[in-house]
Please model this.
Amino acid sequence: SGFQDFTHIKTLIWQGQSHSKQIPSCIFDFPNLEKLNISDTSFESIPSEIQKLKNLKELHFIGKTGHYIEFDGFDGISRLERLEVLKINHLYLRTVPKDTEKLPHLR
Model:
């Protein structure tokens, strides 16, 4: 990845990347990220690499109205044991996220 040391970053807002269909892999190189807000994008899926964000407490997906997203990576999300908030707005889900009981802190 082109990033160096971003261990001090706790919050990342990724907004308005409408031309991209997938979440950039560089997002998963922030080991101490606690809040990730992805909005106004055309991402089609959530990759399982999201599980690398072990310290994530809040995950927000705010899509374009009427946009579909695949939760193939929900297995990765279900491994985020510190996750407290999972917010999904303005998206149609092709599959329903499962295994939310594996998230003990989810409110």
